[in-house]
Amino acid sequence: MNHETRLHLAAHPLAYPLVRALARLGPVVRVPGIGVVVSDAATARAVLMDQAFRKDGPGSPGDLWTPVLGPSVLLNMEGEAHTALRRRLAPLFTPDAVASLVSGVLAGPLGELSARLGRGETVDLADEMRLMAGAVICRVIGMGEVSAADARALFADGERVVSMVSLRSRGLGPRQIAVARRVLDRVGGIAAAAYEAGDEATVMGRMRSLGLSAAEARGAAGAFFLTGTETVASFVPRLVALLHDGGIRPGGDLGRLVEEALRYTTPTPVMLRSVAAPSRVGRVAVRPGDRVVLATLNCTRAYGPFDPSRRHPPELRRLWFGAGPHFCIGYPLALAEIRAVAEVLLAHDVRVVRRRPARRVLLPAYRHLWIKSRASGEGERRRQ
Ligand code: HEM
What we know:
Strand order of the largest sheet: 1-2-8-5-3
Radius of gyration: 21 Å
Shape: globular
Number of helices: 16
Mean pLDDT: 91
Order of helices and strands: HHEEHEHHHEHHHHHHHEEEEHHEEH
CATH architecture: Orthogonal Bundle
Number of domains: 1
Low-confidence stretches: none
Helix content: 40-55%
Bound molecules: protoporphyrin IX containing FE
Structural class: alpha+beta
């Protein structure tokens, strides 16, 4: 069993084998209690592009998050209001904006990481990534200088909330909603204060100058917090482990390595939609109220094992970031973070020393991935 399979099984011991088995039953399968499951990339893309399938109806992500985040936070919106909010948020994610955010927040932690690897230390990359992805989102939601403890605490809060969701979840229970609200209220409070301060050098201050209301800015901060932390933090250790396991050494095209590792790992393995109008998904007829489970991981795995020389056909293109109106708005930020960390790790030609999967999390991840620089190891061996 390869290490990626171990990660999936540790996160979802029952759902992972079930979802993977459904891929063998056909591109679109109706499963009682779960929904209409799609395992084919072209069909999934067609669903994502079609307004009959929404994120704000029964069984959709909106159903899960609206009681916690409120009704207007991108990931539970549709139609004109959604398009208008995305348009106003777009300037936050231009290449220049994300480059300055990432270099501003990560220069210190990356310098420290590089120094530790250079000294030959064994580093837990999973922990480092929780820290770094947490620090980026802390800055996005309006925290100024954050300590490592703050960034880790924020990450742990997010993980606790996101892990409340499982494949069978149709909604959160009252206790889960109370816990999630406590966490999101804290995030919202920080975001609201930064919005009020209105400093254009901060993301929240910029939201104000871009014309977002205080409630919209607060909602966007909550959405970024839920979607933008674990996704990035879980991916980078998986990328490094894949390179290690595949015997791939630095020197190739980093962009290609990252895209292929994103395909193979598919950090968010499933997307959900609610059917709003009678329609068809592939050959299966669906009616309003049905839930469509896009098994992105099945769609992407159909193209074979991790292989950085693989070209991605059009139907597959960046499906791991979604497609259509809800395509990941944080994509440029995610890539900037991933590249910044990967460049440091590749420069040190790191190898994996030990690893441990995270259990019962929503997004498969390493709890620990201990790495070391090969260069320092060779130096040590030469000295012995
Ligand atoms: C490797 C990292 C990431 C992956 C794989 C990823 C994946 C995705 C996917 C698949 C969707 C579409 C979901 C759907 O259509 O149901 C999405 C949407 C979204 N992502 Fe990301 N994401 C990543 C990083 C980020 C980051 C860093 C942010 C921070 C701002 C972010 C913010 C969002 C938001 C706000 C949405 C909702 C957009 C909308 O509904 O209009 N994501 N992401």
